[in-house]
Amino acid sequence: MDSGAGRGGRERLVVIGGDAAGMSAASQARRMRDADALEIVAFERGHFTSYSACGIPYWVGGDVTDRDRLIARTPEEHRARGIDLRIRTEVTEIDVAGRRVRARDVDSGAASWTPYDKLVVATGARPIRPEMPGADAPGVHGVQTLDDGQALLDTLARTGGGADGGRRGGGPSGRAVVVGAGYIGVEMAEALINRGYAVTVVNRGREPMATLDPDMGRLVHRAMEGLGITMVNDAEVTGIRTGDDGRVRAVATADAEFPADVVVLGIGVRPETELARAAGLPLGAHGGLLTDLSMRVRGHADIWAGGDCVEVLDLVSGQERHIALGTHANKHGQVIGTNAGGGYATFPGVVGTAVSKVCDLEIARTGLREKDARRAGLQFETVTVESTSRAGYYPGASPMTVKMLAERRTGRLLGVQIVGREGAAKRVDVAAVALTAGMTVERMTSLDLGYAPPFSPVWDPVLVAARKAVAAVRSVTPSR
Amino acid sequence: MDSGAGRGGRERLVVIGGDAAGMSAASQARRMRDADALEIVAFERGHFTSYSACGIPYWVGGDVTDRDRLIARTPEEHRARGIDLRIRTEVTEIDVAGRRVRARDVDSGAASWTPYDKLVVATGARPIRPEMPGADAPGVHGVQTLDDGQALLDTLARTGGGADGGRRGGGPSGRAVVVGAGYIGVEMAEALINRGYAVTVVNRGREPMATLDPDMGRLVHRAMEGLGITMVNDAEVTGIRTGDDGRVRAVATADAEFPADVVVLGIGVRPETELARAAGLPLGAHGGLLTDLSMRVRGHADIWAGGDCVEVLDLVSGQERHIALGTHANKHGQVIGTNAGGGYATFPGVVGTAVSKVCDLEIARTGLREKDARRAGLQFETVTVESTSRAGYYPGASPMTVKMLAERRTGRLLGVQIVGREGAAKRVDVAAVALTAGMTVERMTSLDLGYAPPFSPVWDPVLVAARKAVAAVRSVTPSR
User: Fold this and answer.
1) One of A32, A54, A111, A447 is an active-site residue; which one?
2) Which candidate in B70, B314, B429 is best for mutational testing of the A interface (most A CBs within 10 A)?
């Protein structure tokens, strides 16, 4: 192996991106090999490292009062562990043949090349912004980075929500429109409700939470309306209107105009892979980097990639997906750092688990939706059951709806979706493990899940669904 | 098949025991075959059917205000579904060769024989009572049946706890001693605290919750003391003292005497199998009936058994255990009813999952303890980690301790124990499914569990433990 990049015979590992995947990889590589054997240089174009982007809605909403609590490890802490971390430094080019990256100081503009022996690409994802006039107007916010979150909080302070706005009582102090009704959209709806805003969610789909089947999304729709959120579905944003001061004034669709003091964009993210594309690294159908099971970029022995910029194998469908989620990024980083540090680890893939909440409504999914299963060439039965989080007679037992998909003939579990209140979301983990193990719904009916009246009915809701799915698979009916 | 028992050519299924296993079996058999094809006769010696014995502590504690809420299905409801249910009728003999059971009306004493084609033995368990003077004195209570629960509530009303005693404030209104610190013991301690009693738990073991390893039981010990419960460990009850009125006055150990207005016995249960033993049916080392995977009594083609009177296969140790738990009883009943009704189902075994709580302390376990693993001939590594129920920065994140056992060399998961607060107990389900699937701790580290800040840290506590277990298994150290 060429060790020309490191000084004094050391190898040099270069990491592009200072958030979850990149810094987990750097930290784990450092645990594997000390500074005498491995130099680690990490580039981050922003101000912050290793922070929880998933926590931003709760900071904006006021549940988390201090931005710094979202930061797991500061640049100084990384440096103290022997990682040469350079913030406000953007990598602008990867020279794969020359084994070097070009980086530019964001503030001074000064640029230089840094050679590497091993490279980690952890460039994350960028939010999709609608291409229309007004999309960049003051008062229109993404919530991808801590800087985004701070900018949004500044707007809230200006438009009447303020740090304690709604929490101190009184009527709505401002009008907010959230564009998009996926995880970020519904979490931001909660945050803005908590800040005392009158919230309208404008959603392109038939129902909110397109990661669920529409029948389950419908339950979310109703519950959000019950929370006082105005839900506008089947609505494409056609323009963002600004006032004389240049600030956002309203969000327009084909049919209506929704006044807005603040607009939050939650219409999804794309892998941030322009750098990788320019360097000729392999990208998949969703625009993410393609890796092997050791998170090595396909065809490149000394380049790894992980986090929001890669595609991952969906173990249920057998196809690649793009999922931007901190928990995957951390796992990727762990695997990459182990491998880059000379050890061995793999990331086998995902089953597509996600949990979220809007106020006291909990939403969870894992595995395939109906349309995913069809796209994967699978035939299936679906069942939906109503159950409760605790024994029906125990105080606080709350209703939940569980939908389950099982493959025809084999009875293999294909997916689960849950909408309910307290105790609903994390029940999906049982299905996530069962999917990983390739269990049939019949095998699931005898799973030895924890039972006591404060925690579960005597048949856990997931098992109730499994029982009904067994019956559906057994019944000989023509498939859809 | 001999169909002589049923009238008009119908087969007759006789069920002994009207609680979870028996009535689930009867109900499922009825779903499989209607009354024209299958006559179903069920005998229950008590007043009640299909009730949640697990709910009794919460009824006694006042969380459940109405006894009838613990009854899933009344005798009348069973009869309306075509089950010939005879309450207050005790089966006193099984004549296996003659395919008949002898039953006695508890009130009148009248007895008669009932022939069967198929038989279900679901006689449950009986609480262990210490054999010493005073053990049957007024004020000493078991909590196995609804009748037990009512008797205990009557004592509480008499001794100052009363229906709303402690809940309405004021100082302790009476002194309660709980003998035993297993699930029933700790749940009854909570119930009596809720009723305003000063509670002492007298426990034979080194720490409470002997279903956990002592190091985890120690956490329960400390937490219970923090709740104001007096914990007396390493203490064998040597006598129960009564006053001049014949009622209980104190519980004595070798070292001390603990004044008591009420005593609750929670020292475990044994399979109720005298009837089966007398009939020559096969019993295991723990005194429970032995069945095959279809819950058929070994060696008897037309007799099934399930619920608290049977032994079950522990899938992790490969040995039989006795576990009295409603959720298993319901599953057994479902399997038995399907098979007795002419269908096919199996109960593959258990992994030993159990969850419980004492006030806001949650306790969970699945798989093997250290001593179970040793007894099964397994060598293993153990790790213990501290984590939180939610992202550390999210309000309400509560600490939890997770202990994990993994097999040496293979890294196969052997067991998990969790002690914590809200959100701790049901996390054990992930380990229960992983145990069922025979997963290694290394495979577990990449499990796709639900992540969002209100629900989990970015590494779920179970995954944190799995990561540490991987490292322990990898390190080459002499085994204990």
Assistant:
1) A54
2) B429
CB-neighbour burial class of residue B111 (10 A; exposed 0-12, middle 13-18, buried 19+): middle
Measured distance CA(B165)–CA(A249) in Å, rounded: 59
Structure tokens that stand for B348 in this block: 């593959």
Q: In CATH, what number is assigned to the domain containing residue A307?
A: 3.50.50.60
Q: Are residues A277 and A263 part of one domain? A: no
Q: Contact, A207 vs A218, CB < 8 A?
A: yes
The predicted structure's pLDDT at residue B475 = 84
Domain boundary among A267, A295, A325: A267
Q: What strand order describes the sheet that includes A248-253?
A: A237-242, A248-253, A257-259
Q: Does A15 share its domain with A73?
A: yes
pLDDT digit string, tens, across residues A124-140: 999 888 888 899 999 99
pTM of the complete model: 0.94
Q: What proportion of chain A, given as a percentage, has pLDDT over 70?
A: 95
**Which residues lie across from A320 on neighbouring strands?**
A313
Is the distance from CB of A440 to CB of A434 less than 8 angstroms? Answer: no
Whether residue A367 is found in the same domain as residue A455: yes
The token pair that represents A316 in the structure block = 């249920």
**B284 neighbors B312 (Cβ within 8 angstroms):** no
Residues β-bridged to residue A321 = A312
Looking at the structure of chain A, the number of domains it has is: 3
- Token output for A264: 């939050």
Same domain, B116 and B205: no
DSSP string, A168-232: G-SS--EEEEEE--SHHHHHHHHHHHHTTEEEEEE-SSSSS-TTS-HHHHHHHHHHHHHTTPEEE
Distance CA A14, CA B1 (A): 76
Judge: B330–A395 Cβ closer than 8 Å, yes or no. no
* Same structural domain, B385 and B441: yes
Residue-wise pLDDT for A17-50, tens only, equals 999 999 999 999 999 999 999 999 999 999 999 9
What digits encode the pLDDT tens for the residues B381-426? 999 999 999 999 999 999 999 999 999 999 999 999 999 999 999 9
**Residue numbers of the domain that contains B304:** 7-126+270-340
Contact A359, A193 (CB under 8 A): yes
Higher pLDDT pick, A212 / A480: A212
What does the pLDDT read at residue B153? 96
Question: A430, A364, A429: which is closest to A183 by C-alpha?
Answer: A364
Instruction: Compute the mean pLDDT over every residue in chain B, rounded to the nearest whole number.
Output: 94
Neighbours of B280 (CB within 10 A): 12
Residue B157 forms part of a structural domain: yes
Q: Which residues of A touch B347 (CB under 8 A)?
A: 446
- Other Cβ atoms less than 10 A from the Cβ of A336: the count is 33
Helix axes A326-340, A20-32, angle to 10 degrees: 30
What gap in Å lies between CA A191 and CA B172, rounded to an integer? 44
Question: Which of A429, A430, A442, A460 to probe the B interface (max B CBs under 10 A)?
Answer: A429
- Condensed to tens digits (0 to 9), the pLDDT of residues B320-371 reads 999 999 999 999 999 999 999 999 999 999 999 999 999 999 999 999 999 9
Q: Record the tokens describing residue A256, joined without a space.
A: 């209506």
DSSP element (H, E) containing A350: none
Three-state DSSP class for residue A95: strand
Alpha-carbon gap, residue A136 to A142, rounded angstroms? 10
Residues of B in contact with A391 (CB under 8 A): 52, 54-55
The span from the CA of A94 to the CA of A195, in Å, is 43
Beta bridge partners of B41: B14, B84
Q: Which of B306, B340, B374 is the last residue of a domain?
A: B340
